[in-house]
TrEMBL record, chain A:
It comes from Pedobacter nyackensis. It holds the Pfam family DUF1501. InterPro entries: DUF1501, TAT_signal. This is Uncharacterized conserved protein, DUF1501 family.
Automatic annotation (TrEMBL), chain B:
It comes from Pedobacter nyackensis. This is Uncharacterized conserved protein, DUF1800 family. It comes from the Bacteria. InterPro entries: DUF1800. The lineage of its organism: Bacteria, Pseudomonadati, Bacteroidota, Sphingobacteriia, Sphingobacteriales.
């Protein structure tokens, strides 16, 4: 186990002599949006967004010149040509078109700061959400019993002691499978909850907090004592974070959605320099069996939220942009052919987005063959041509300097495809 | 399905057996042939009783220690292992939950799977498919609800809510505490998860019928029961594993809804890909059979041998072949197994048996999917055409393997003794396992009579899981629970989303997993919220806890409540640390005036599922809680209301490090 005490030493909070209810001025400044000398040396941060439910990669980034796709999707297919029935796709490279509701991504793609990988997925051809998410998050597509998640292993491979409880943070109510494991990781659904609470009784809460701090400081159980210390230090750091009045930089406007709120809080943690290096957020609603819509409708709303949330986060990052890489992931894609209820069913490959200043952007990576039936997996789905592990490991390697693939993705031997510069 | 007559017969039978057993028990009290070596460890009888209670119950009050000492420590332990103490009050309160006793088939019929109700509504023309997912969805949700009401269907979450509620009430109020702890242990050992939609509805019956009745029996019984349960077959995919071509194979998989739309549109396959090379390839692939190794791997790695138990990848594959054809029997009107249903209904029982089918409750062995080749697993030879029996043989072998004896012993010791149990203790238990054919009860006795159980390295060294913390807190405070779901939410907040652990490993049973920065603060907040009565539907009465005796001073109150909540513990340090809370008179009045302004306690706003919280149960559990006699006029500052200093002190005690330990 890494040293839990490291945080106390490195954090040096005691030096500031902050009592309960107090917060160092520079932290308050950091929260207000300006950069300030942090508690920790600034580190690179990888932000992962899991799109649960399986995003239709063929609708997000459409190979619009593919006649088979057009035939297979009478009401779902969109074209890049102006004057078509729907709002046209955003033509990325003459072959792939970005969904018009993701217009926010266009500039990033043009500036070569966003890369797309198409045909990405798992070598295990399960079409069960549960199994596919399980395999993707554990990082072992043929082993159920792997007890750790790949992001937890990533935290363990960062190469320095866990100096902070916030090295790995998930903005979810419980720890996701990706973060299962023995390295420290915290699940926080709301930064404001990180406090001793006695509703409507602030004095009582402060007094209780003081007593708790004393009690944990003197307990004979090492685990409880150290974690207690960590908790109170972390609490003092966070308790003044005012999510409601947080002012994002560069007038960024986060959508008022689950994902928007998660990314906003990740931004706050980053600006506070609490030592976070791996962050995780979720986005739901991608299981579009019924009426997924085209340029409007449920899918359009989903990708709109996804792209606007990410771009608000990116704008908010301001001078931190060099430190941050954002990567999306989803358990599988959806059928090439639309089904009888205006939706798509569980398929195989999908696509993902990677955003950052060291991304090999402006390209749609991977391999998408013409969607003729003989090219489809099991005669129905976009074939997986890029193993998700090759992309995840490359991003972790290039951005976080994690190069022990044997530990990060045991059982995997494959090549990187050059999504990072 | 059982006929009513059968049900009555079996009921009468059970009744008879119960009467006989209890008569027998009265004549001949269980002989106790062992003794606990606590004196050698320097403990007195009360301290020893407290240790027993802290490890083998969900928390104890001082009078529980009195009771154990009176009965005799060893005898009490045997009673707990037997698990046959009357639970009248609990059973009465559980009767408020209509659906916790439904069979899997009844669940399938009453609780459609997510999306299934919608498909039925569209099919019956009640809902226009074009309206699905359009607009704000409110009207559409109402339509679905109306449709479900008209059919008598209920949303699955309602089933789970009842299931969670009964779990919390059982753990809190059962007299057979050890049985409940072992149920928790074995469920976690053979974990299935509500995160997997396909297996989720089988979970209540899994815990009730597969785990709970077998927790102190032979290990092999448990292993076999889990192997044949729909929950496990589905969770680890063995239900779909097949070794040879079967016409209905495809249809079986279709039942789970994932590929339903494909099935419903024969046109797609017929016109679009008929005669295509892709289809031929597909059919070719099907002929090779769909072997799924998940269960075979985990049954060795997690259920029996352990990861270092000495098996190879080849053993896994071979074992998976042995277990092909082990699947789920058709159940219910809307439920699983449509394809096999026709077959079972059309063919008479004898013919089926002759053909090698085994239909046992919800379990079905389909010889048509079984791989008939010969195989070698862990050096044991399984001849060709072994059918169902070779699977039983395989599991029997695994259940008796020396690696299993060690693995199970270590896991039990980790749970009940110490996060890192001494190998001497594990060896002793493994020996018992081997000697007694995997008798769990005997292993527990070996464990509890071992000096290691009573050693310094074990006392107070385990950390309560969030579930254990919550239950021990409400037990210590004699709480009256009318809304168990509120506790469920808090347990989730503290880091244990019960029944939702995604991996088949189950929750790691170590303090390090439970105690982290975020969860620890939530434990403290839980203590405060509980003691100050800010958890709706969980009522406590601090005055009656002390038999309505008014402590003579604030200091006395602190000491009394520390001892009530943490009997036989050294509470001096806690008392010392908490004194300042009471001794600042200005602070007291400030807090009270602040508290007075806030009015009645409010509902937590961070509940995960507000809808669930709204649906509270009117019928509360009846408990012999003495009513507050109201003679607390002078003690008002200590025990009058929810915002008193005493309530806060009690909250801090619940959240204190000492109370996190067991």
């Amino acid at each position: 186990m890494t040293s839990r005490r490291g945080f106390i030493k490195a954090g040096g909070l005691a030096l500031f002599g902050i009592g309960l209810g107090g917060i160092p001025g520079f932290l308050a400044e950091a929260v207000a949006g300006t950069k300030a000398p942090g508690l920790f040396k600034r580190k690179k941060i990888m932000v992962c967004i899991f799109q649960r439910g399986a995003m239709d990669g063929l609708m997000a980034v459409t190979p619009f010149t593919d006649k088979y796709l057009k035939a297979a999707r009478p009401t779902l297919f969109m074209d890049a040509a102006k004057g078509s029935k729907t709002t046209p796709l955003i033509d990325l490279d003459g072959r792939f078109g970005l969904h018009p509701s993701m217009a926010a991504f266009e500039s990033m793609f043009r500036e070569k700061r966003m890369a797309i990988v198409h045909g990405i997925g798992s070598p295990n051809n399960t079409r069960s959400h549960f199994d596919a998410q399980d395999y993707m998050e554990s990082g072992t597509p043929f082993r159920k019993g792997t007890d750790s998640g790949w992001l937890n292993r990533a935290v363990g491979l960062l190469g320095h002691d866990a100096a902070t409880p916030f090295q790995g943070v998930s903005l979810t109510s419980s720890l996701p499978r990706s973060f299962y494991g023995e390295n420290p990781a915290v699940a926080i659904s709301n930064l404001q909850d990180f406090n001793i609470q006695l509703r409507g009784n602030v004095k009582g809460a402060n007094m209780a907090a003081k007593s708790f701090e004393d009690l944990y400081d003197t307990t004979s159980s090492g685990l409880l004592k150290e974690t207690g210390k960590e908790s109170f230090d972390a609490m003092k750091m966070l308790q003044k974070v005012d999510t409601k009045n947080y002012k994002p930089s560069n007038n960024a406007i986060y959508p008022n959605t689950a994902l928007g709120n998660s990314l906003k809080q990740i931004a706050q943690l980053i600006k506070m320099d609490v030592g976070m290096e791996v962050a995780f957020a979720e986005s739901g609603g991608w299981d579009t069996h019924f009426n997924q819509g085209a340029d409007t409708g449920i899918f359009a709303r989903n990708v709109n939220d996804l792209s606007n949330s990410i771009m608000a986060f990116w704008a908010d990052m301001g001078t931190y942009q060099d430190d941050v890489t954002v990567m999306t992931m989803t358990e599988f894609g959806r059928t090439v052919k639309q089904n009888g209820t205006g939706g798509t069913d569980h398929g195989r490959a999908s696509c993902n987005f990677i955003l950052g200043n060291s991304v090999n952007g402006g390209l749609v990576h991977g391999l998408v063959n013409p969607l003729a039936i003989e090219n489809l997996e099991d005669g129905r789905d976009l074939a997986v041509t890029t193993d998700f592990r090759s992309v995840f490991s490359e991003v972790a390697d290039k951005h976080l300097n994690i190069n022990n693939d044997k530990v990060l993705f045991p059982d995997w031997e494959g090549n990187k495809i050059g999504v990072m510069r | 399905m059982k006929t009513p007559a059968k049900v009555i017969y079996s009921f009468v039978f059970v009744l008879l057996v119960t009467v006989l057993c209890s008569a027998f028990q009265k004549e001949k009290p269980a002989a106790v042939k062992f003794s606990f070596p606590y004196k050698k460890a320097g403990l007195d009888e009360r301290q020893a009783a407290a240790h027993l209670l802290s490890r083998f119950t969900y928390g104890a009050k001082p009078e529980d220690i009195d009771a154990v000492v009176k009965i005799g420590l060893e005898k009490w332990f045997v009673q707990q292992l037997d698990g046959k103490i009357e639970d009248e009050a609990l059973n009465k309160s559980l009767s408020q939950y209509d659906d916790i006793n439904l069979s899997n088939a009844e669940v399938e019929d009453k609780y459609p799977r997510p999306g299934q109700a919608l498909r039925m509504a569209v099919k019956e023309g009640v809902i226009n498919k074009d309206s699905v997912n359009k607009g704000d969805g409110k009207e559409y949700r109402q339509q679905i609800k109306a449709f479900m009401d008209s059919k008598g269907y209920k949303p699955q979450q309602e089933l789970f809510r009842q299931f969670f509620n009964q779990k919390i009430l059982r753990a809190t109020y059962t007299n057979n505490q050890l049985n409940e702890l072992l149920t928790d242990f074995w469920f976690n050992h053979f974990n299935v998860s509500l995160t997997k939609n396909q297996s989720a509805p089988f979970t209540p019956a899994y815990e009730r019928d597969v785990i709970r009745p077998n927790v102190t029996g032979k290990f092999q019984t448990l292993l076999m029961a889990t192997a044949k349960s729909p929950a496990m077959l589905m969770y680890l995919d063995n239900f779909s594993s097949s070794g040879q071509p079967v016409a209905n194979n495809d249809d079986m998989q279709m039942q789970m809804g994932e590929k339903k739309t494909l099935k419903k549109r024969p046109g797609f396959r017929a016109t679009a890909i008929a005669n295509s090379p892709a289809l031929k390839k597909l059919q070719e692939k099907k002929k090779q059979g769909g072997l799924n190794e998940n269960y075979a791997r985990e049954v060795m790695e997690l259920h029996t041998l352990g990861v270092d138990g000495g098996y190879t990848q080849s053993d896994v594959t071979q074992a998976a072949r042995v277990l092909t054809g082990w699947t789920i029997a058709p159940m219910g009107e809307n439920g699983y197994g449509f394809a096999a249903k026709n077959l079972l209904e059309k063919t008479d029982k004898n013919t089926l048996e002759k053909r090698g089918f085994v239909h046992d409750g919800d379990f079905l062995f389909m010889p048509t999917r079984h791989d008939n080749g010969e195989r070698i697993v862990l050096g044991k030879h399984f001849p060709a055409n072994g059918g169902y029996e070779e699977g039983v043989e395989l599991l029997t072998m695994l259940a008796h393997h020396p690696s299993t004896a060690k693995f199970i012993s270590k896991k039990l010791a980790t749970r009940f003794v110490n996060d890192n149990p001494a190998s001497s203790l594990v060896d002793k238990m493994a020996k018992t396992f081997t000697k007694t054919d995997g008798d769990i009860k005997q292993m527990m006795i070996t464990m509890a009579t071992a000096p290691e159980f009573w050693s310094k390295e074990s006392l107070r060294e385990k950390t309560k899981s969030p579930f254990e913390l919550a239950i021990s807190a409400v037990r210590s405070l004699n709480a009256e629970i009318t809304q168990p779901y509120q506790l469920y939410n808090w347990i989730n907040k503290m880091g244990q989303k019960m029944y939702y652990y995604q991996a088949p490993t189950g929750f790691p049973d170590k303090g390090q997993y439970w105690i982290n920065t975020g969860s620890l603060l939530n434990r403290m907040n839980f203590g405060l919220a509980l003691a100050t009565q800010r958890i709706p539907g969980i009522k406590i009465n601090l005055a009656s806890l002390n038999n309505n005796h008014e402590p003579e001073s604030a200091d006395a109150a602190l000491l009394i409540y520390c001892k009530l909540i943490m009997p036989e513990r050294d509470v001096l340090e806690t008392v010392k640390r908490l004194k300042p809370m009471l001794n600042d008179p200005n602070l007291v009045s400030k807090v009270e005036s602040a508290a007075a302004k806030t009015g009645p306690p409010q509902t937590m706003d961070t509940m995960e599922n507000e809808e669930m919280v709204m649906k509270t149960n009117k019928k509360g559990i009846e408990k012999p809680v003495k009513k507050n006699s109201g003679k607390n006029a002078t003690a008002v500052t200590l025990s009058g209301g929810n915002n008193t200093m005493l309530a806060q002190v009690v909250g801090v005690i619940i959240g204190s490090p000492e109370f996190q330990r067991k």
